[in-house]
């Protein structure tokens, strides 16, 4: 995108990276001030959890500008070592950050007003916890000594995996 400049500078590269990582800004999307506040509370929960958890990935950017399918987003920069392998503590830190938005909404907005914005965070945290138990052998002494998909194990074993998750 030209953006009316004769040459590209650092802000152009950041704009391009954000567009690729986060999607195209939906500036024409009309949301109420209340929705914007709830989104800010939710994303602040992710950012604060990320910032204060020493094992979490480094916080890159938090926005309440609607991009792609979401009303806001918090992005972290992974450590190179996390791209190859993650420790149990780092997995727990990632789950903590994923749930930070939900907890912020619950504490500030109230349990009865939690938004559906927590849905994808909860799915991601649950999927990570399930992989940690079912495939990485990190939690649960009895259920983590086998690495198979749900279809390859008994209902009893699957119930134990669910309990650990």
Describe the structure.
The protein is mainly α. The chain has one domain: Peptidase M41 (Methane Monooxygenase Hydroxylase, Chain G, domain 1, Up-down Bundle), CATH 1.20.58.760. Helices cover 50% and strands 7% of the residues. The protein has five helices and two strands. It has helices spanning 10-22, 33-52, 88-109, 118-134, 155-164, and strands spanning 58-63, 73-77. It has a two-stranded antiparallel sheet with strand order 1-2. Helix 2 packs antiparallel against helix 3 and helix 3 runs antiparallel to helix 4 (118-134). The longest helix has 22 residues, at 88-109. The chain is globular. It starts with 9 loop residues before the first helix and ends with a helix. 22% of the residues are buried. The model has no long low-confidence stretch (mean pLDDT 83).
**What's the average pLDDT?**
83
How large is the count of helical segments?
5
Structural class: mainly alpha
Given the C-alpha coordinates, what overall shape results? globular
Q: For the report, how would you describe the main beta sheet?
A: 2 strands, antiparallel
> What name does CATH use for the topology?
Methane Monooxygenase Hydroxylase, Chain G, domain 1
Helix content: 40-55%
Tell me which CATH architecture applies here: Up-down Bundle
CATH class: Mainly Alpha
Order of strands across the widest beta sheet? 1-2
Query: How large is the share of residues in beta strands?
Result: 5-15%
Uncertain stretches: none
């Amino acid at each position: 995108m030209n953006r009316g400049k004769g040459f590209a500078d650092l802000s152009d590269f950041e704009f391009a990276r954000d567009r690729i990582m986060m999607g195209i800004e939906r500036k024409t999307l009309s949301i109420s001030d209340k929705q914007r506040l709830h989104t800010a509370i939710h994303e602040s929960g992710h950012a604060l959890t990320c910032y204060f958890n020493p094992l979490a990935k480094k916080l890159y950017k938090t926005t309440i500008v609607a991009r792609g399918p979401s009303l806001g987003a918090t992005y972290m920069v992974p450590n190179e070592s996390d791209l190859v392998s993650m420790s149990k503590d780092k997995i727990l830190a990632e789950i903590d950050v994923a749930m930070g938005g939900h907890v912020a909404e619950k504490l500030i907005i109230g349990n009865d007003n939690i938004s559906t914005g927590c849905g994808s965070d909860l799915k991601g945290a649950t999927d990570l916890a399930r992989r940690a138990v079912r495939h990485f052998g990190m939690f649960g002494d009895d259920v983590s000594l086998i690495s198979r998909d749900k279809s390859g194990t008994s209902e009893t074993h699957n119930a134990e995996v669910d309990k650990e998750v």
